[in-house]
Write a structure and sequence with these properties.
It is globular and about 75 Å long. It is of the alpha+beta class. It has a seven-stranded antiparallel sheet with strand order 22-23-24-25-28-26-27. A six-stranded antiparallel sheet has the order 1-12-11-8-3-4. A six-stranded antiparallel sheet has the order 5-6-7-2-9-10, with no helix packed on it. The C terminus is likely disordered. The longest helix has 25 residues. β11 and β12 form a beta hairpin.
Length: 695
């Protein structure tokens, strides 16, 4: 589509009751990013209240009809996905605006290939719109969905806002909370006291106490960021300059929202057990599991039952598959006719909205067992005959773009389309962590249910551990690299590259769930390149260099975290490049870095990055603490930054056992983030009061 064009969705597909909108971009460094927001507008072109402003810390709006699903990596950047259940959008809403914004002074001109794509509930692409001429703006309206004569249409907008998200939101009637700073301070004080308050509670969760609000105003939740002013919750750039000793930065203003959420407490309450041998009673026990079949049956029942009872969780897992926002019921071991031998899928998910049913069959595998193509094909055929919308596979494996886990035949003569989707157990765990530890759920009972689910999935007996095996090619490839017999074009090297990519994606899911931040793999490739071609090139590099490389971007950290597995030396290297834009003499800048790394490991390697060709000096933190001048360039070269690296022995096994490669990667990333990255997060530059955004 071109800017200003519009199209009726019903003319493009019959499956547009639910649609998926994706906003994408790329950057040369892999670090550029933006945040998506959605505004639901009434007939006057305004939000009814601030709850109609949907953004990353208020990801559901319109009675569940709009949901932000987060980012997914692409070959040359990332995409933000938004699920729209158009049949469930409140009748008072005439238009839905889809926008994105940048923060910290960044502009969209620094990103490439700004685009919007729209797909129907079966995942088929219907619309693509490329946004141009957005160089000097920090917020962009990509497009809008609107009603005409009872049908939904899409318009390609591409309008930029130099005033950022604050200007965009204000134009549509979002109320900017001028008292947010005072409330933030009060909430922070309450949160710091929360562990003590939890000691007297009898549950493993805590509901945040309501704060006093002006008369007639809804309560603001404890986790709403400064999004409407173009600043983020972790971006202190909106704080005024301070004289004298460092003072707590003034939080930026934020939009109000109406509903508090329940999250788990920061620390566990004191146990009433006599000793450590006492085991807490669990809702989902794991001690009696003896076979793979028992694990599959129980895991399916556990996760489907929690999906039906916790609306936020069920909606989070199914919205990306085209399910509407409605009443959900789940079933296990359902018998369905299929020729002479009936089939029994592991589960069925049904969602009812306005008298219409959305149905998905579920096929589950645990303990590393692979999906069986004939089973999945049979369920696809059954779903097509019965008019079901989807088949969902759930296993420890991780799906990759352009590399399907199961190949199925699609009968093009059938009018009804059935979508095949895949979930990893790691994705299920990630979504549960995000809800109960960071974003919150509707009430305390739901928080407890999710906590019990999380305990079950993470138990060693459940079999729901995510990707845990580098595959049969892992040992032969390592041996081939060691004795230099592995040749380019070897299919085994490609298998290792695919499994390495699966592992990196799982590392991002796990770390993101623990931190409550967006963590995504950075995939540097030519725009529009085929994923298979990119992996083939990486496989050739593996054969030639003997190394596996990956980069992950963690929201709020300077630079990207690089991971290198050198199969020749058996070493894992985790590193990050920290820019050095601070003023001062070179030695002063080095000393400031050393002070910030006071708690870092002594074996941390520090390399000075210099402007121009050649490498800068380097040394270990243990040696540099008494002699920081050793990494100051002797030739007067300008310091552009520092590379911080930790080295660790690499596991030899292909699995995740104590000596396994997968566990060694997890441990290396965890250690590096906790002991290095967390200490070097660059402080945001201060602004003068005249530069502070106004609401």
């Amino acid at each position: 589509m071109v800017k200003g064009a519009n199209v009726g969705l019903a003319a493009l597909s019959e499956d547009v009751g639910s649609v998926m909108v994706s906003l994408g971009w790329s950057s040369a460094t892999g670090e550029g990013d933006a945040d998506v927001s959605v505004l639901l507008l009434d007939g006057d072109g305004k939000v009814r209240s601030d709850v109609d402003f949907c953004f990353y810390n208020n990801p559901v709006a319109g009675n569940g009809s709009v949901q932000l699903l987060g980012k997914t990596p692409t070959a040359d950047g990332s995409e933000d996905r938004i699920s729209f259940d158009l049949d469930a959008v409140p009748e008072e809403i005439d238009k839905v605006v889809v926008a994105a914004s940048r923060y910290g002074g960044s502009r969209f001109g620094e990103l490439d290939d700004l685009r919007l794509t729209l797909a129907d509930s079966a995942g088929d692409g219907l619309v693509r719109f490329a946004v141009e001429e957005a160089d000097e703006v920090s917020a962009v309206i990509f497009g809008e969905l609107y009603r005409r004569s009872g049908e939904w249409k899409f318009r390609a907008v591409g309008q930029g806002y130099a005033s950022g998200l604050a200007g965009l939101a204000t134009d549509y009637g979002v109320d900017i909370d001028d008292d947010a700073a005072e409330e933030d301070a009060r909430e922070q004080g309450e949160q710091e006291q929360e562990p003590e308050r939890d000691q007297g509670q009898g549950q493993g969760y805590a509901e945040e106490a309501p704060l006093p609000e002006p008369a007639g105003q809804p309560a603001a939740p404890a986790r709403v960021p400064a999004q409407a002013t173009g600043a983020r919750a972790d971006d202190a750039s909106a704080a005024p300059a301070q004289d004298g000793p460092a003072a707590a930065p003034k939080p930026a203003r934020r939009p109000r929202t109406a509903k508090k959420k329940v999250t788990l407490p920061r620390t566990a309450r004191k146990s009433l057990a006599d000793n450590e041998s006492w085991r807490s009673a669990r809702l989902f026990p794991v001690s009696a599991l003896k076979s793979d079949r028992e694990r599959e049956t129980r895991a399916t029942s556990v996760v489907l039952s929690v999906m039906a009872q916790v609306p936020e969780f069920g909606r989070r897992l199914t919205a990306g598959f085209g399910a509407p926002a409605g009443r959900m019921e789940t079933f296990t071991e359902v018998t369905l006719p299929h020729g002479e031998s009936p089939r029994r899928p592991d589960g069925v998910v049904r969602v009812e909205r306005a008298g219409k049913l959305w149905t998905a069959l579920v096929e589950t595998k645990t303990n590393g067992n692979a999906l069986k193509p004939d089973q999945v094909q049979a369920y696809m055929d059954i779903a097509a005959r019965r008019g079901y919308e989807a088949v969902i596979t759930l296993s420890n494996d991780v799906a990759l773009d352009g590399s399907p886990l199961v190949d199925v035949r699609i009968d093009g003569r059938r009018k009804h389309k059935v979508a095949l989707w895949h979930l990893s157990w790691a994705e299920v765990v990630h979504q549960a962590q995000m809800l109960i530890r960071h974003e919150g759920v509707g009430n305390a009972a739901h928080a407890w249910l999710l906590q019990e689910l999380l305990h079950y999935l993470q138990h060693e007996n459940s079999g729901c551990h995510g990707f845990q095996n580098m595959g049969a090619a892992w040992v032969p490839v390592r041996r081939g690299i060691d004795d230099e017999t592995l040749c380019q074009g070897d299919a085994r090297a490609l298998e290792v590259i695919e499994n390495w990519e699966r592992l990196v994606r799982q590392v991002c899911l796990r770390l993101g769930g623990e931190l409550g931040q967006k963590v995504l793999p950075v995939q540097r490739a030519r725009r529009g390149s085929d994923p298979g071609v990119r992996r083939a090139e990486l496989a050739d590099h593996l054969c030639e260099q003997g190394r596996l490389n990956a980069e992950i971007r963690i929201e709020g950290t300077p630079g990207v975290l690089a991971i290198t597995a050198d199969l020749r030396t058996g070493k894992l290297r985790t590193s990050i490049e920290v820019p050095s834009a601070e003023p001062g003499y070179p030695l002063s800048r080095v000393k400031r870095l050393i002070r910030r790394l006071a708690e870092a490991p002594a074996d941390l390697h520090i390399e000075t990055l210099v402007d121009g060709p050649g490498a800068g000096p380097r040394g270990t933190l243990e040696r540099l603490r008494p002699e920081p001048a050793d990494i100051v360039p002797k030739d007067g070269a300008q310091i552009t930054g520092f590379r911080l690296s930790l080295f660790k022995g690499m596991g030899s096994g292909r699995g995740s056992a104590e000596t396994g490669f997968i566990r060694s990667v997890d441990e290396a990333v965890d250690r590096f983030h906790a002991q290095v990255v967390a200490q070097v997060e660059a402080p945001a530059p201060r602004r003068s009061r005249s530069e502070e955004p106004t609401g």
